[in-house]
Each structure stands twice: as C-alpha cells, then as structure tokens.
Specification:
Layout lengths: L1 H9 L22 E8 L7 E2 L21 H5 L5 E2 L10 E10 L2 H12 L2 E7 L2 E6 L1 E5 L7 H4 E16 L2 E14 L5 E12 L14 H4 L2 H41 L5 H4 L19 H27 L8 H12 L1 H14 L5 H30 L7 H29 L26 H8 L1 H19 L7 H28 L5 H26 L6 H38 L6
Parallel strand pairs: 8-10
Antiparallel strand pairs: 1-2, 1-3, 1-5, 4-10, 5-6, 7-8, 8-9
C-alpha cells in the first residue's frame, strides 16, 4: 500500500491523476454506475462508446458527468460516463424502468448485427468492473433446412445488479442480464434494472481476488515450464564454463611457456582455432556505429524499465487500478531516459565517435518515433471505425510533451555525463590500422546469419510458456498477477541469452570473423523474431479475432512489443559478449 501511494505521487509528473474516491459510503448515498465501452467479444480492441448503439437514454434529474481519468486509463481506451441509473448504498431497488425503446428498421438492423457479433459491454461500480452480454442469437427448433429462416436475435432488456458490502464499503458487484426480447422492427422494448444488496464478511483488501484466475495462472504446467527453463540455464552455464576454461586455461599455459622461452615467436603460440588471430580487429568499431550506440542505449533503458516495473508489481497490486500499469510504464520509460543517454554516449565515445549530438537525438527518438508512427497508423484505422481505441489529440499531445520536457532533457543529461566519463580506445588490445580479411570459406554454421537465427531458439524456448500466459491475459480478458513468475522467467531469459550469445560469439571468433558486435546483437535479438512468429500462431489458433481494426491493433501491438524485445535481448546479448571478449583478449599482449 505504501509503494502504491508513492507511485501515485510520482505519476503526477506524467499527468496521471490519482483517484480521490475513498470507497466509503454513507447509508442511502448515491453510488454511480459508470458506462465504459461496448464491442465484439472476440475482438478485445474493437470497442465503441456505449451509446454508439441506438439505446434509449434514461430521463434523469441530475447532470450526466464524465469521469476524469489518468493518462494511462485514457490510453487503454476507457472513458467512463455516468449511466444515470439511481443506485443508493444498501438500498434495494425493485424492477425499475429505464426507458422505452421503439425499434425502427435501422435500429433493429444495428442491434441484430451487434448480437450476431456477440457484443458485450463493460460497466464500473466503485472501480470494480462488470461485464454483460448485449443479447443472444437463438434458433427455434426446426428442420435443418428451416433453421436459417427461424434465426432470431434477442436483446436482454433487464439488468440486475447484485452488490455485496462490508460495513460502509462495496466488496463485490455482479451483473445479470435477463429477459431477452426479440428484435423486430416496430416493437417497443422496455429497458429495466434492479438492485439487491447483501452483506459479506470479505475484506476490502481482497475484493479484487475474484477477478484473478488462480486455476489458470497457477497451474502445474506453469511450475513445470519454470523448472525446465532452470535446467536449460544449468546446461548452458556449464557449456559456457567449459568454453571459458578451455580458452583461458590454454592461454595461461601457453603464455607461461612463452615467458620461459623468450625465443618463441608469436605465430607459434597462436592457437589453431583462430580466435587469437583477430586480436588486432576484434575491438574495431562496428559498422553504423551511431545506430548501434542508439540501440544499446535504448536497450539499457528498456532493461531497467522492465526490471523496475516487475519489481514494483511484486510489492504492489497494479492490476486492480485502472490504467496504473500503463501510467507506470510511461513514468519509468521517461525516468530511465538518462540511462539511455549515458550508455549510448559511453559506447559512442569509447569507439571514437564524433557526432555525439546526432547520436543523442537518435538515442532519444529511435523507439518513440517508431511507436508514434504506429499510433498514428492505428489512429487512422480506429478513426475510420469510430472506435474508443483511438488516441485523442490532447492525449497524444500530452505524451509528446512528456517526451519533450522530461525524457529528452534526461537523455541530454545522461549523454553529457556519459561523454565526460568515457575513455576513448579503452580496450585490452590495440586496433590495427588495416582491416584483416575475413575468410570466405567459413563453415555454414559459423556464418553470422546462421548464428543469429539459431541463437534465438533457446531463449525463446525458456519464455514461450510464460508468453502464452501473458498473451492470454492481454487478449482474453484475464488479469495477469503472477509477477513472481515473470521475474524468475526474466532472470532466466537474461542468463540464457547471455550464455547463448557467448557461445555464438566464440564460434564466430573461432572462424576468424571479428564482426561480433552486430552478430551478438542479432543473435540475442532474434528471440523477438520467434516471439512474433508465435504471435501469428496464437492469433490464428488461439483466438477468434477478425476484421481490419482488431487485426491492425493485434499485429501493431505485437510488432511494437517484438521490436522492444529485439532491442532488449540484443543489448543483453551485447553485455554478455562484450564481457566475454574483453576477458579472453585481456591475455593477448602482442602488438
């Protein structure tokens, strides 16, 4: 609870205003029923305003208000509007008419299409969500040849709210849709609602537990996948240990013998495997140095942001506050911009980069520019559909202002500090003036492309079970809460990625190819390729999504996530490969 309060205070920087509702009511005090959105059940991102369907509206004596929400809530497509229903705390209400809805041909067609597409709607009472189906499409008992003629769409005309309370706080809310009425042009449907209140002994702190699917997330397969990933870590760590023991132990033996026999030439102590022969080129700056530096800076930023988010989720319950996770993500991304500037500038100067201003701009704008372009594209699609998923101009402007006035200055500060502390050419070996030719007769498995594609298989294998749970929670209306599992899987991913990248780097250098920087980055980053391919499989076999809007949002989101994962894993791979390369070449003393 303390950590949540601290986060709420910090998120003021990102314009995420905290909810000042106390969740406490007096007897007969007004309880607002908030309307949120409506849309096809199988398309989670295809949502519309509740009154986008031609519902009649209740005649109310009070002003209809729209709830002020945080930036994170708005980005998630939520916009709560007062339903106008009269609900009072601990006051039961019998069947009460909302309004009479006379159907014409156009209204009947819209409701019928919505029922066929399994439209659902979402309400909120005291920040607790409720879901209800719009109607039901039924077929009368008849022969198969007559079924098409006898299909009839029905609209649920009655909503029953069952609310449980403990003292002066609401603990549980339920919605039951009843009384299906046929949708026929010219008919009049009376919309009604009722409310019943029941006391409960449940505590307020655990009121959100009923939304958590314990059987799904804490299934035995979740534990087995974690154990299998752990065994993979043990195997890979052992393999990397053997490589290090082989190379470094041989170095010790050979260089000790060199000290004993000063007449031995350098060529005689060069290992036949070939990795020592590229000592004069292994620390040569990679091609596209500025882009590589910007990717590393962004990768370190994403690494720190993900770790901070996971740790915060462990000590607090972000899932029970609307938009809190999205707001926290914006906050931590902005805050870690200094890390991006620092690491990018450090690497760029160490490799004798001169255009540090352009590198700083590229570091600060690389991933945000991709996300902004994606948002603009999805906004066009959402605007065409008039969906609530579109990001409004003021919201988009707020995000740009956060990036411009918080993220960019932090990138600048990190860049200045990174440049002032970095030392150019801080490498164990001197870089030769002339490039060494790269052998062209390298075996197929030692080619950079092959190493990059094959290296991502094991890291993906260590996380793909967890990816299924994450995908299901995001795309199938479940609340993800097992952040302890996520932290362990994240640690396993880091270890497996480092180990695999070290092996790939060793194979590459053994073939006398010194282009290890980009190879290590792509070898680790290729995990994202398999995640994206898995998302295609998940879309086609695990969901029933359809339509341009939902397809665009699904693959747009998965593309952005895969790109972030590519940069993140690529940076992790560089960290491991760089430590390995600097370690083994620190024994090379030849000029």
């Amino acid at each position: 609870m303390v950590s949540r309060n601290i986060l709420l205070l910090l998120l003021l920087v990102t314009c995420a205003l905290a909810d000042d509702h106390t969740h406490e009511y007096d007897a007969n005090e007004e309880v607002t029923v908030w309307l949120n959105k409506i849309g096809p059940y199988h398309n989670p991102q295809e949502t519309y305003a509740y009154y986008s369907l031609p519902f009649c509206q209740p005649a109310v004596e009070k002003d209809i208000k729209i709830k002020d929400d945080s930036l994170g809530v708005i980005l998630e497509g939520d916009e709560l509007t007062d339903s106008g229903l009269h609900v009072k705390f601990r006051e039961n209400k019998k069947i009460t008419k909302i309004c009479d809805m006379k159907l014409d041909d156009d209204m009947t067609s819209k409701f019928t299409d919505a029922v066929k597409q399994h439209y659902w709607y979402q309400l909120y009472i005291d920040e607790l969500p409720l879901w209800g189906m719009l109607g039901e499409h039924m077929v009368a008992d008849s022969d198969a040849a007559q079924q098409q003629q006898n299909e009839q769409a029905f609209l649920y005309s009655h909503k029953h709210f069952s609310i449980s309370y403990n003292n002066n706080q609401i603990i549980e809310v339920n919605l039951t849709s009843e009384n299906p009425r046929p949708l026929t042009s010219g008919s009049v449907i009376e919309l009604t609602y009722s409310v019943s209140w029941t006391p409960t002994e449940k505590g307020f702190a655990s009121r959100f537990d009923r939304y958590l699917d314990f059987d799904f997330f804490e299934h035995q397969i979740h534990w087995f996948s974690l154990f299998n990933s752990f065994m993979m870590v043990v195997f890979l760590c052992g393999l990397v240990g053997l490589i290090l023991m082989r190379t470094i132990k041989n170095d010790y033996a050979r260089y000790h013998s060199l000290e004993e026999d000063e007449e031995l030439s350098l060529e005689r102590v060069v290992d036949e495997s070939g990795w020592k022969q590229v000592h004069g080129d292994v620390f040569r700056p990679p091609y596209y140095l500025m882009l590589y530096s910007a990717l590393l800076g962004t990768g370190f930023q994403l690494l720190c942001m993900c770790l901070a988010l996971i740790l915060l989720s462990l000590v607090s319950t972000l899932y029970d506050e609307r938009g809190m996770l999205t707001s926290a993500l914006i906050f931590f991304y902005s805050l870690t911009s200094a890390i991006a500037g620092y690491t990018s500038a450090q690497y760029y100067k160490r490799n004798n980069g001169t255009n540090w201003k352009q590198c700083m701009v590229l570091t600060g704008a690389l991933y945000p520019a991709v996300c902004l372009s994606l948002v603009m594209f999805l906004n066009v699609v959402a605007f065409f559909y008039q969906s609530t998923a579109q990001v409004g101009f003021t919201t988009l402007l707020s995000i740009v202002m956060i990036w411009l006035f918080i993220s960019c200055p932090l990138v600048l500060c990190g860049t200045v500090f990174g440049r002032s502390t970095a030392v150019a050419n801080d490498f164990p070996c001197r870089v030769n003036n002339l490039r060494r030719p790269i052998p062209t007769d390298t075996k197929w498995y030692a080619q950079p492309v092959c190493l990059a594609l094959c290296s991502g298989v094991l890291p993906f294998g260590s996380i793909f079970i967890e990816m299924y749970f994450v995908f299901t929670s995001f795309w199938n209306y479940k609340f993800y809460y097992v952040y302890g599992f996520m932290l362990l899987v994240f640690v396993i991913l880091v270890i497996v990625t480092i180990c695999v990248t070290i092996v790939a780097t060793y194979v590459l250098l053994n073939s006398e190819d010194y282009r290890w920087q980009w190879t290590s980055f792509f070898a680790a980053g290729s995990t994202a390729l398999y995640v994206f391919l898995y998302s295609i499989y998940y879309f086609s076999s695990k969901t029933r999504m359809s339509g341009l809007l939902q397809t665009s949002f699904y693959f747009g989101y998965m593309g952005a996530v895969s790109l972030a994962l590519f940069i993140l894993c690529g940076t992790i791979g560089y960290i491991g490969a760089n430590a390995f390369v600097r370690s083994i070449y620190s024994y090379i003393k030849a000029d």
